[in-house]
């Protein structure tokens, strides 16, 4: 067994790449950072498949056993991939897919598995680099390598490969995939940072990733298999030119049509017309005709865009017409219809209690997720009829981007103790549907009365580059995404960026182009924010009448058992009596939720009675419950009373308590002291002349 190892040193971190020991029947590499170890195995079929697409699949599993943990639930084994695992698959897939030859048809699979997880060094970026290293070792004709790196800014300092604790403390986190010379993919989240700060982080990531690129190149030289000699299928240039020449005039006219479906129908008609003109010469060559028509469309669109006219007639910086309807639906707690051009989303916000939080069994333990954002992309939104097979990876990825964009402006749980769920249903789509989820999600929260710290908007940017000429496009269409060179989504407030996502289809994105794209995105984002605030300037002061009211009561930790009671008897009784949903946290925070405020007040009074403790020196408005020869027992809280000794009733000597008080009388008393057994001594005379504002009335 020959084990080959290379080390990439980045700052004070060492990442070890090793092959030849584990999974030797695949093209495998093991990456180690700290005590986190990830195995990535790449396999490919012996022969190419007869398919109209590239059969590449990427999988990732973060096993509980890697962290010394047994899964929760009844089955005690990992099932379908979690959202975190799916997002890691996407991080690995997106940068490697464009680097295969377009006609590559070998069935190729990349599987990443976490063997050890130290719960500080994140395995996702190791899986990204591992996918690249495995492909470098394989016979696949792949134009890598790429390196995955995470950068966080903590206390103003940029850190490569930050620990989990450093990520939690950061105000800017980016995951970047780089080749030797350029950035090819970005996922970023931030707390309203400036465009220049974001560019600095991206450039820092690019520079720091170079040792990983070099380590992969060294590993390939030592252990790589010979690459398949790849040649793209020969193209009949004469036939292609003939098709393109026949279609040019009609294609130019079709591309003048502004509507998406009308334009696509016209393009399909061009293809049918050319095939009919070719007659017998077109038999069996339908795929070649489609390829030629597609190439012509791409040439004409890109040429027109570089010249300053886009597919739908806009200039490069123009935003499509925006239509917003706030609260179109009555029952959802917050709702918005957001439309930009031919992209439309109905977005709702639902407010729930802590019991509605998503409880996740994660590697790091149980997590209660109180902010949910779900993005849906049904087939009808693009006019298609196809099966709906559950949530797609694309929907999870777009939802995660929108979640990241809005998460940073949420109020803290003490200010707003609700579980918040946003659902964005894409009802029409022609590009930027995830950004509609961001804009609609923000407005629907504001409509629901969520006191966000700042409104957020999102915009999708594009790029078309021809030689030395390029055009940065604001608010791209689906066709511009398909035919262009970059998909660049930027979300943020008026103050700065909250989320960023970028995928490149070309080699090379100079800093000046990135700066222009971010600045153009900032201007577009502010324009969209202005349109949003015209419809709803600030969060509504009150939540929906259909939403539960939530109040918070703090009790001493040792009093929690008094509220719960033996076997939960007391808390069940309060719920049955009032109808209020009660949730008790280990830190003494008790949340009460109900649509009826009077019911909350009743439950609150009961809990305060169960947990009440008199405070020495505090004044209370009490009622005389019982008179005895040596004084009076005064109730200062339902179920809680104390003794006012006869000597503490008046500033003069009295012979009988009844000369001063009768049962049922109200009187203001002061707590003198509480003895070791909990008995309360009160004084009436020490409360004479007290300011009424200092007196507590806890008797309901």
UniProtKB/TrEMBL annotation:
The keyword DNA-binding does not apply. SUPFAM superfamilies: Eukaryotic type KH-domain (KH-domain type I), Nucleic acid-binding proteins, Polynucleotide phosphorylase/guanosine pentaphosphate synthase (PNPase/GPSI), domain 3, Ribonuclease PH domain 2-like, Ribosomal protein S5 domain 2-like. It catalyses: RNA(n+1) + phosphate = RNA(n) + a ribonucleoside 5'-diphosphate. Transmembrane segments: none annotated. One of its GO terms (molecular function) is 3'-5'-RNA exonuclease activity. GO terms for cellular component: cytosol. Its cofactor is Mg(2+). Residues 617-685 form the S1 motif domain. It is found in: Cytoplasm. Its EC number is 2.7.7.8. GO terms for biological process: mRNA catabolic process; RNA processing. Keywords: Cytoplasm, Magnesium, Metal-binding, Nucleotidyltransferase, RNA-binding, Transferase. Mg(2+) binds at residues 481, 487. PROSITE patterns: KH_TYPE_1, S1. Involved in mRNA degradation. Catalyzes the phosphorolysis of single-stranded polyribonucleotides processively in the 3'- to 5'-direction. Belongs to the polyribonucleotide nucleotidyltransferase family. This is Polyribonucleotide nucleotidyltransferase. It comes from Enhygromyxa salina. The lineage of its organism: Bacteria, Pseudomonadati, Myxococcota, Polyangia, Nannocystales. The gene is pnp.
């Amino acid at each position: 067994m020959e084990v080959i190892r290379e080390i990439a040193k980045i700052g004070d971190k060492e990442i070890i790449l090793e092959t030849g020991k584990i999974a030797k029947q695949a093209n495998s590499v093991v990456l180690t950072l700290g005590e986190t170890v990830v195995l990535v195995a790449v396999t490919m079929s012996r022969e190419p498949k007869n398919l109209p697409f590239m059969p590449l699949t990427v999988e990732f599993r973060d096993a509980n056993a890697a962290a010394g943990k047994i899964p929760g639930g009844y089955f005690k084994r990992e099932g379908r991939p979690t959202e975190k695992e799916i997002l890691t698959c996407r991080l690995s897939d997106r940068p490697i897919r464009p680097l295969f030859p377009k006609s590559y048809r070998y069935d190729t699979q990349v599987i990443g598995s976490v063997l050890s997880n130290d719960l500080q060094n994140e395995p996702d970026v190791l899986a990204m680099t591992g996918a690249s290293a495995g492909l470098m070792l394989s016979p696949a004709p792949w134009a890598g390598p790429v390196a995955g790196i995470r950068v966080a800014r903590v206390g103003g300092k940029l850190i490569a490969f930050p620990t989990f604790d450093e990520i939690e403390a950061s105000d800017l986190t980016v995951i970047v995939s780089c080749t030797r010379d350029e950035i090819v993919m970005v996922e970023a989240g931030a707390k309203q940072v400036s465009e220049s700060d974001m560019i600095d982080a991206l450039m820092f990531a690019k520079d720091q990733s170079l040792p990983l690129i070099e380590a992969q190149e060294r590993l390939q030289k030592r252990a790589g298999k010979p690459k398949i000699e790849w040649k793209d299928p020969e193209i009949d240039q004469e036939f292609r030119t003939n098709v393109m020449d026949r279609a040019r005039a009609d294609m130019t006219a079709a591309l003048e049509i502004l509507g998406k479906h009308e334009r696509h129908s016209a393009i399909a008609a061009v293809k049918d017309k050319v095939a009919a003109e070719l007659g017998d010469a077109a038999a069996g060559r339908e795929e070649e005709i489609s390829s030629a028509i597609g190439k012509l469309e791409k040439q004409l669109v890109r040429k027109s865009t570089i010249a300053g006219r886009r597919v739908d007639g806009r200039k490069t910086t123009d935003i499509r017409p925006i239509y917003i309807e706030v609260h179109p639906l009555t029952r959802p707690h917050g709702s918005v219809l957001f439309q930009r051009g031919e992209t439309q989303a109905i977005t709702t916000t639902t407010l729930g209690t802590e019991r509605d939080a998503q409880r996740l069994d994660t590697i790091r333990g149980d997590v209660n997720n109180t902010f949910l954002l779900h993005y849906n992309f049904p087939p009808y939104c693009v006019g298609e009829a196809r099966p709906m097979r559950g949530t797609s990876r694309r929907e999870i990825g777009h939802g995660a981007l929108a979640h990241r964009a809005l998460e940073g402006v949420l109020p803290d749980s003490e200010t707003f103790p609700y579980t918040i769920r946003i659902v964005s249903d894409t009802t029409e789509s022609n590009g930027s549907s995830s950004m509609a989820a961001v804009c609609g999600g923000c407005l629907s929260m504001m409509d629901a009365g969520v006191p966000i710290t700042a409104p957020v908007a999102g915009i999708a940017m594009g790029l078309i580059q021809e030689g030395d000429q390029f055009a940065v496009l604001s608010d791209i269409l689906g066709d511009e995404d398909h035919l262009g060179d970059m998909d660049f989504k930027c979300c943020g407030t008026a103050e700065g960026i909250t989320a960023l996502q970028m995928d490149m289809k070309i080699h090379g994105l100079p800093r000046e182009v990135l700066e222009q794209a971010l600045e153009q995105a900032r201007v577009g984002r502010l324009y969209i924010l202005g349109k949003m605030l015209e419809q709803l300037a600030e969060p509504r002061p009150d939540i929906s009448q259909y939403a539960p009211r939530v109040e918070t009561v703090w009790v001493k930790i040792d009093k929690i058992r008094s509220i719960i009671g033996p076997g939960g008897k007391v808390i069940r009784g309060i719920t049955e009596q009032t109808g209020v949903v009660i949730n008790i946290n280990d830190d003494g925070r008790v949340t009460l939720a109900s649509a009826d405020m009077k019911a909350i007040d009743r439950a609150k009074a009961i809990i305060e009675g169960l947990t009440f403790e008199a405070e020495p020196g505090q004044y209370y408005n009490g009622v005389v419950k019982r008179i005895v020869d040596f004084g009076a027992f005064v109730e200062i809280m339902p179920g809680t009373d104390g003794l006012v000794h006869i000597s503490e009733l008046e500033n003069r000597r009295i012979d009988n308590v009844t000369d001063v008080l009768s049962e049922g009388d109200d009187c203001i008393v002061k707590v003198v002291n509480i003895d070791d057994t909990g008995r309360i001594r009160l004084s009436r005379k020490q409360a004479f002349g007290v300011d009424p504002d200092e007196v507590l009335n806890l008797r309901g």
